[in-house]
Amino acid sequence: MPQSKIIAVWVGFFLGCISLSVGAAETRFVSLRVNQANLRTGPGVRFPIMWVYQERHYPLEVLDEFEFWRQVREVDGTIGWLHKNMLSNTRYALVLEEDKLLSKPEVNGKTLAIVQKGTLARILKCPAENAYCLLSFKVHQTELEGWYLRQNIWGLFPNEVLD
User: Fold this and answer.
1) Which pTM value belongs to this model?
2) What CATH class has 3-90?
3) What is the spatial distance between Cα 115 and Cα 112, in angstroms, rounded to a whole number?
C-alpha cells in the first residue's frame, strides 16, 4: 500500500475518533436554574445572544456539550447554546394542550383543575406504561399535584420513565 494511502487511513481514523468524542453527549431534558439566561448562537460569550429566557424552570432538551456549554433545543425547535451553570437537572414540563388535571391516572379520575396551554409544571413521576404523569403546579403560594396526560406535555421523551 502506498504511503499516502496509509497516511490518509490514519488521518481518517483520527478524525473519526475526534468526532465521536465531540458529539458524545447524551440527549436529556433539563430546566433553567435561573430567572434570566442568554441563549447564544455558539458555545461561548463571544457568540451573539439570540434569545434571553426570562422564566425559571423552563424545560430544554440538551443535544450536545462543548466544555462548559450545552447546546439546547426548546419546544418550538429553536437551538442555541447556554452555559451549564444556567441549567438544572430538576425536571419540568411545558403544557402543550389545555386539559384536565386528574386526581388519579385514569380517565374517570376527579378533575382537580383545567390546565392552560403554556403552563409550567414540575414532573414528579411518569410510571412505565402509563398515559399519565404526576405533575406539580404552583398556584399562587400553594402546590397543586395531579395526573396529566403525558402526550400533552413537553419535557420528557415518549417512553421515558421517571420515578
Assistant:
1) 0.82
2) mainly beta
3) 9
